[in-house]
Amino acid sequence: MSKVRVRFAPSPTGYVHVGNARTALFNWLFARNLGGTFVLRIEDTDAERSKPEYERQLMEDLRWFGLDWDEGPDQGGPFGPYRQSERAAIYSEYAEKLLAEGQAYYCFCTSEQLEAERQEELKAGRQPRYSGRCQKLSAEEVSRRKSAGEPAAVRLKILESSFFWNDRVHGPTTISSEVIGDPILVRSEGLPAYNYAVVIDDHLMEITHVIRGDDHISNTPRQLALYRALGWEPPEFAHLSSILGPDRTRLSKRHGATSMESFREMGILPEALRNYLALLGWSPADGKTEILSPEELTKQFSLDHITKSPAVFDNDKLNWLNRHYMKECPPRRLAELALPVLQGAGRIGTEPGPEVLTWIELVLGAVLKNISLLSELPGATRIVFEYDAQQALGTPEFHELLADPAAIEVLKAFIPQAMAENPLTYPRFREITKAVQKETGKKGKDLFHPVRMAITGASSGPELEKLIPVYEEGSKLPLVQHLKSVAERLKEFAEAAKL
Q: Which of 463, 490, 321, 306 minimizes the C-alpha distance to 389?
């Protein structure tokens, strides 16, 4: 078997959807598993919708996702160019060859004529397909109409009655030629049609396996017909099942986030998304392992374990994986990812020093178990950044607290001692609470609950062992919103509660 060569060939007409991301991932895993070549090709023949900024974004998204490519528009390779817009001369050459050999013909039908034909077929209850009437035109008439400047497309003659291939996912597959008609190779304005350009490119780039979504199954017979007309051996095909939303309809924006960019903005780690998408339509050999590193995915990946049935996108499962990967993430890297989120929420200044990243590590250590996404940080860190004793005292929980003589006794014993410590270390906090316990006879919840409410302004939240260093270290930093130390919080609380 020749060396495996696969390609991911997106159109730069929008952001990368998770369905395309999974296709890219499966191609990449297949190539890396077999020591093959992964090619990035840009299919930008749609001049109106293709934009350079989308091309830049898709490359950035793929790199963020953890994929690299061996050949592509940004680094070249032996089979370039890797943008279809730069391959016009190649497409023209093969179109002329097919016309000269009688495998293709000029079609002068207007869009209005084609639509009328289509409506007639539908009324008759038949699958719409081109009648092939321009195939009957004489060479003289074709020459005359071309010379007169009449627009003409180039169509492929379909000679076979059916097309068969052994799909690596769906198995033996046969489609009748009656449902496809004579496909357009080159449009009347001179642009190559998708099914034409993709065959030329895949052959010339020596692609051995075409791994793509099952929405391309209907394109396969048109492509097989072109391979035969050109006398070329087609690659192997593997058509991946659809990704569905929870309502079992094709995943779309109405189901929530679907683009790579949106998942990045939500704070999904690339390793979590990569692991999750790998499990949509594929499973490891044991059929049950759910957490797999890039190395494990590469080692285990096989087309034989791809399922035919559609996969349902489960945000809860993705969030569960993201929680796992956030916990496993090196603290400094996670802090670097969290920094722009906190800056965007106005929590931290625009030019923080390196000591801020160290402090963010403390913040994440306090709140990480309560979040699934980095985008949840602004809400999860309110207990860090927002403290208003007067507002807290207006809540039912604090009314109840101040009506409890035992709680007042604890606070009157604790606050003066804690306020005398600036900064207050957690070991010193423990010594003070032990002294208060001895003095008041209160312990457990009766001791720590009033203390927590006074320090944090909330009845629940992260452990004080983690919050106290966050308050004390953060209060020294030049943050956008001044962070109050424990002493400042307790002073404000005592004054507001008139203790």
A: 490
Cα 229 from chain centroid? Answer: 39
Confidence of residue 455 (pLDDT cuts 50, 70, 90): very high
Place of tokens 């569905």: 244
The DSSP bridge partners found for residue 40 are 8
The answer to whether position 420 is within a domain reads: yes
Q: Is 200 a domain residue?
A: no
Within-domain flag for 402: yes
Q: What is the pLDDT of residue 2?
A: 67
Rounded to 5°, angle at Cα 263 from 261 and 264 = 65
Q: Which of the residues are catalytic?
A: 253
SS3 of residue 347 by DSSP = coil
| CATH number, position 403 | 1.10.10
Report which residue type is found at 437: Q
Q: Is residue 222 part of a domain?
A: no
How many domains does the chain contain in total? 1
Cα separation of the two ends of the chain: 83
Q: Are 387 and 405 in contact (CB under 8 A)?
A: no
Token look-up 């939303």 returns 245
Query: What digits encode the pLDDT tens for the residues 182-204?
Result: 999 999 999 999 999 999 999 99
Place of tokens 């003070």: 432
User: 21-25, 42-46, 288-292, 395-399 — which one is most confidently predicted on average?
Assistant: 21-25
CA 299/CA 290 separation, integer angstroms: 15
Which residues constitute the domain of residue 469? 380-497
Confidence label for 367 from pLDDT (cuts 50, 70 and 90): very high
